[in-house]
Prior knowledge:
Number of helices: 5
Strand order of the largest sheet: 1-2-3-4
Shape: globular
Largest sheet: 4 strands, antiparallel
Low-confidence stretches: none
Helix content: 25-40%
Order of helices and strands: HHHHHEEEE
Strand content: 15-25%
Number of strands: 4
Amino acid sequence: MNIAEILKTLNNGTRQQLELMARTILTRGRSHADMKELSRHASEFNDKLLRIENKDQDYLALLFILAQHLNEINLGSCACSIVEKPMYNSPERLEGILEILSETFNEKEYAVCIHSRCLACGKEYESKMVDSGFGQKVIWKEKVQRS
């Protein structure tokens, strides 16, 4: 993850470049260290959001999600909290944040179930990929760890 390139796009990019940048950061392999480093620039993301025209807000939804997520990380949240965001985030897209422990197919629900664990804080998650409309959605649930 090249922070200088990200900041350059943030400050000078077109609407499409901003959306592609946010999509790339949120859906491609990244590490906790990458997100922590990027979260140091959360205020720059927020400043950019204040300058976005209303007509562009829907198109740039992922940029808003990314900025909110960076704020949370900057305030001490773990990068795995991205699973709580309203976007398609399969465990495979969170490589570098989560480790996949097991994968099963639930015939009754016709869903792929994945058990994963955060590489930094150790939280465990159960996710289900289910068909939804013309695509798929992922339903996340934090697994309660028993002592």
